[in-house]
Write a structure and sequence with these properties.
mainly alpha; two-stranded antiparallel ribbon
């Protein structure tokens, strides 16, 4: 017996505000049934002795060490700017006055 009916698919489509045809209801019901059966199969195989994992293989952090390095001074950063004001970049207004 299918795990999901056409009526349930129609209800889900209505909740998702999707317009589906009668033919699509049959198609989606079959597809969702396959998905639900696959998930149920995984649930049957799952064992309390098997720890949950997020990856099939062990991963380690491959990022480099975070090292503080000197950066630009405020004056150096603003030196290439077309315009600056009060120690900040000055950019053209893109929003109207109503904001």
């Amino acid at each position: 017996m299918p795990a999901i009916s056409r009526e349930e698919v129609a209800g889900l489509a209505k909740l998702a505000r999707l317009s589906v045809t009668e033919a699509e209801l049959d198609t989606f019901a079959g597809q969702l049934d396959v998905i639900l059966q696959s998930v149920a199969r995984v649930g049957e195989i799952a064992d309390a002795e098997i720890p949950p994992t997020s990856h099939a293989v062990p991963l380690t952090n491959v990022f480099r060490e975070d090292v503080v390095r000197p950066g630009l001074t405020q004056e150096q950063a603003l030196s290439g700017a077309p315009k600056s004001e009060d120690g900040r970049f000055r950019v053209p207004r893109i929003l109207g006055e109503e904001a």
